[in-house]
Design a protein that fits this description.
- This protein is of the alpha+beta class.
- The chain has three domains: 148 residues, 2-Layer Sandwich (Alpha-Beta Plaits), CATH 3.30.70.2200; 89 residues, Glycinamide Ribonucleotide Synthetase, Chain A, domain 4, CATH 3.90.600; 108 residues, OB fold (Dihydrolipoamide Acetyltransferase, E2P) (Beta Barrel).
- The chain contains seven helices and 21 strands.
- Strands 1, 2, 3, 4, 5, 6, 7, 8, 9 and 10 form a ten-stranded mixed beta sheet that branches.
- The radius of gyration is 27 Å and the shape is elongated.
- The structure holds zinc ion (ZN).
- Zinc ion (ZN) binds next to loops.
Length: 411
Amino acid sequence: MGWLGLDDTDSLAGGCTTEAFHQLITNLPDGVVCGTPRLVRLWPFAQRRTRGNAALSVEIHASDEAGLLTHLDAWWETHLAPLSGQVEASTISERPQVPASPGMVWFADAPDESYYWDAVRGDVTNSIRPQARRSWGGHGCIGATAAVAWPAREATWEAIAWRMPGASGSRRIDDAVLREVDGWSNIVFSRDPRRGHQLVAPRGPSPVLFGLRSRTLEDAEKACLRLLDSANTESVIGWRVFKTNQASGDHLGADVRRSIKGKEVDPVRKHVVLSTDSHPIKVFAEGGPVNALARWLEVGDEVLVRGLVHPDGTLHAEQLRLVHAWPRQRQRPLCDECGVRMKSMGSGQGLRCPACKQRTPDSWEDVEFAPPTWAWTEPDVDARRHLARPLAWSENNGNSGRLNQNDEKQW
Ligand SMILES: [Zn+2]
């Protein structure tokens, strides 16, 4: 009985931790039984993150722990340790390349979940890592341990299939079948509803043919098999359904309420930075509806924000909701006798109706205004983080908000 974790076997451009993990657990010795493998996304701003910052773990039942560890020692030396330091030239990312630093851990008992929460919400480079019974390798032990510590109370599933050795170039996935399974209520994020693009195939030189996301294990399996059964989908070396923390929202703390003190909009790219009494709020153009709301805001308006503080000190807003807005414009009232708009007679001299000449004391009324929305906003499905929980899944996305239930987190 125990838990195996693995992370950081891929560079940004090549390799794939999910495939390395698939090979690892497919080739365990006879008599070893695995639970459902788990794919765990961690803090999106981790300095060393690879694509999507995912780590892997699985619960293992083995009557002979010593024999299993001997097998893992050998597998590590032959298949995983050689991946260390690999960097491939990247055409898909401008981020600095970080050499792979694979790490594998074995825990007889799952460590406390607190390490998972630290690793999904912040930087754990210098935190105290729970002691594994055995660990192999380097930096990857951090994510591997966090993946083991994940309590998995809030989960979705992803069926991942890997291409045949040597397969490269464009992926062949039966689009008609994909459209069909996309219509199932539990299959999620497989297509961009606005533009019709499929979202299941990674870009770039990954060995993954597709990753199909689902709210249930059964539908993930069924949809994956439907795709693989089609003659119009290319052959694969294998597939597995992973239990994941994707769409859990685990990376976010409680909502924060902020009053806007200033606004800067990048004239070309349309990114917005809102100054507040605390961290400046950054809303990227890719945020779509979130960005549209941010651009509409003016000084004095108040918002609720869900997001993560970047190491540069800005709060990257993922979801945003307007809670108070000042009137954008004022105007003179209408004459109550004839309905014509009153005019000022000059400073301190009141108003006069241009038609009937009735006079009234000086006054203003607010011009009606319409914000883009009073509801919570989120990016379109193709621009969300793996961890982002869709608003449609939350019980409170209307005017009550989570603020009423949780203490406001102070950044
Ligand atoms: Zn009048």
